[in-house]
Amino acid sequence: MSFTYNDVESIYRLEKRSSALQKINDNFYSELHELICKVGDEYRDNLLRIRDELFTLRMSKILRLVARPGESSPPSNMTRREKEIYDDIKSIISNYMDEISRGNEPCKTTEKEDEKGQKIPRLKIRILRSIPAIIGSDMKHYGPFYENDEVELPEETAKILLEQEIAKRIS
Question: Which of 31, 43, 140, 145 ranks highest by number of CB atoms within 10 Å?
């Protein structure tokens, strides 16, 4: 399918107005290149500018989406190549997060004392999906938590997250 200068302008305007990625064909950029080669000089410069701005807009949207913690499924309306880029960046960020998590091992203590000096048993867990901040069994605020966070919580609080399959116990 070949498109015109007006089609490209329309796609650009839609992309610029929306915060979501707009649907374009996998071969959009190659067809755009063909159009750029065919048109006269009066349109070529403008098409090149639109191409560059459209690319920047789409990459900005993809980068914002890939950086969201806990986001598990890729956004729709990406070209095949954009999906590859999304997956590559997501993998890099995930690996980096794993490195950070390994470098922040919690203290070795498995019990802490409450205000009255009583020991509170604690469990170390890995969060399986992002959740907002919670109030623990000790009435303290914990979180928010993101996917793959490793945390140590009061045993009673940790067990609730385990039962709801929000977390997995770490030995």
Answer: 145
CB atoms within 10 A of CB 36: 18
Cα 42–chain centre separation: 40
Give dist(CA 47, CA 38) in Å, integer: 11
Q: 79-93 burial, b if ≥16 CB within 10 A, otherwise e? A: beebeebbeebbeee
Asked whether residue 106 is domain-assigned, the answer is no
pLDDT digits (tens, 9 = 90+) for 41-63: 889 999 999 999 999 999 999 99
Q: Does any domain span residue 54?
A: yes
Structural domain harbouring 72: 5-101
Residues near 161 by Cβ (< 8 Å), separated by ≥ 6?
A: 125, 127, 153, 167
Domain count, the chain: 2
The 3 state secondary structure assigned to 101-162 is HHHCCCCCCCEEECCCCCEEEEEEEEECCCECCEECCCCCEECCECCCCEEEEEHHHHHHHH
In a domain, 51, yes or no: yes
Contact 162, 151 (CB under 8 A): no
139 assigned to some structural domain: yes
